[in-house]
Amino acid sequence: MKMKFSVLLISFILLFACESEKPKEEIPSDAPEIEVKITRMDVLLRDLMRQKQDLNEEKIRQSLNIHLPFLQEWLFASDTTLADSLYPQLIQYFCQDSRSAQLTDSVLNKFPKEYNFQEVLKDPFRRFHYHFPKEPIPAVYLYVTGYQPESGLRDQSYLSERYLGLSLDYFLGENFAFYPGDLPKFIRRRCKPEYIPVAAMRHFAEYLHPEPDLSQSPILLDYVLTYGIWQAFLETMLPEVPDSVRLSYTSAQWTFAEAYEADIYKELVPLLFSSDFMKFEKYLSDKPYTPNLSGDSADRLAMLLGWRIIRTYREKHPEVSWPELMKNFNHRKIFEEARYKPS
Questions:
Q1: C-alpha–C-alpha distance, residues 145 and 26, integer Å
Q2: Cα–Cα distance measured from residue 338 to residue 343, given in angstroms and rounded to the nearest whole number
Q3: What is the per-residue pLDDT across 220-256, written as a single tens digit (0 to 9) for each?
Q4: For residue 270, how far is the Cα from the chain centroid?
Q5: Rounded distance, CA 76 to CA 69, Å?
Q6: How far apart, in whole angstroms, are the C-alpha atoms of residue 327 and residue 135?
Q7: Positive or negative, the Cα torsion across 41, 44, 45, 46?
Q8: 75-96 residue pLDDT tens
């Protein structure tokens, strides 16, 4: 398809209209309050680092054994025997490493001990509890991991039944000096504090409606609606977050997405029922823009189209609860019932 940016004024009108075109969902004012249990492992470890000369395994056990269940999961994938014997050694190594200390200091500079993470996370968790009352609310652990080679878009955060772990060194601002040198600019722009609740809720979305299994030969539609469900979920959990931030689009990409919604649909429709991953991979991947389109084009067009389809489906089926939608993997039926028609 041929897409050109030719009318700058219309583009800006679209840009500012797009954030308010659909009223954001909110939960009732009398919905139960949620207190998120938050542990700053980065603060605890920095306190241990300051005891560098006298630090030993016994001191580590005294300081951290209360957090042993989390450490067993985080460091050893719940291998309790291995964790009990080795975790003090790993913590000691981390605390005595000068680069770890420097990175932890950078995190504490950006997020001081008194930084109010409770305020950042309580509303998203409250909305999640309202829509998913049977799901457990995990304890949150905030920590520093450092940067793994070729980690790509994945930070070292994770979600389990008991814990949500968030690696704060991935949210230090796009110009932070110690990110890997080859970390692309289009990824750096989401390495900001305002993406912390987005990253947190994204883990819940992926946990409740996992990504298609390649061994099952999924079709493009499976990806389109999986990613669409994730984005619609994030929109519901984070109504205060601008769409462009939640989708991680620049202003130009967001304008493109709004202006060419119908063209995006026409581009992807012929491939929706294809299982040839190589044919549609370019519409799924994080890139600066979509290959074969303009440099201002949005990437992840499958996600964008899926979000629009799920929005339409939910408008036509308000009786379907979020837990029901998250458990529905009949993507073809959802697509048919949405009867989506791009504007």
A1: 35
A2: 14
A3: 999 999 999 999 999 999 999 999 899 988 888 888 8
A4: 29
A5: 10
A6: 13
A7: positive
A8: 887 677 777 778 888 899 889 8
